[in-house]
Write a structure and sequence with these properties.
With 92 residues, the chain is mainly α. The chain has three helices and two strands; from the N terminus they run αββαα. It has a two-stranded antiparallel sheet with strand order 1-2. Helix 2 packs antiparallel against helix 3.
Length: 92
């Protein structure tokens, strides 16, 4: 017979296993949204260099934060850049 603490541990483990795909999906959605915002930032607010639009350092840092798993910080920066440029954010 399993002890109460062992049963609790099994239940918590089961919940974590079931929630893991949700977390991965959310991270994937955030990364896709980050890519979309980054593309918009470069297209509309980047620096024109020899006819090409280039990202600003803040845009690059935000994209790297997203790629590194810190989507909260990266998205906040990209959203701020777009809002400051009077660009409407796309739906999430």
């Amino acid at each position: 017979m399993l002890s109460v603490s062992m049963k609790l541990l099994l239940r918590v483990s089961l919940v974590l296993v079931l929630l893991a795909p949700i977390e991965v999906g959310a991270q994937s959605d955030d990364l896709a949204y980050c890519d979309k915002l980054y593309t918009m930032c470069v297209r509309y607010l980047g620096k024109a260099i020899q006819g090409d639009m280039r990202p600003t350092p803040a845009m690059v840092i935000a994209q790297e934060q997203c790629k590194g798993g810190n989507t909260t910080a990266g998205l906040a920066t990209l959203e701020r850049i777009l809002r400051n440029g009077d660009i409407t954010l796309p739906p999430r």
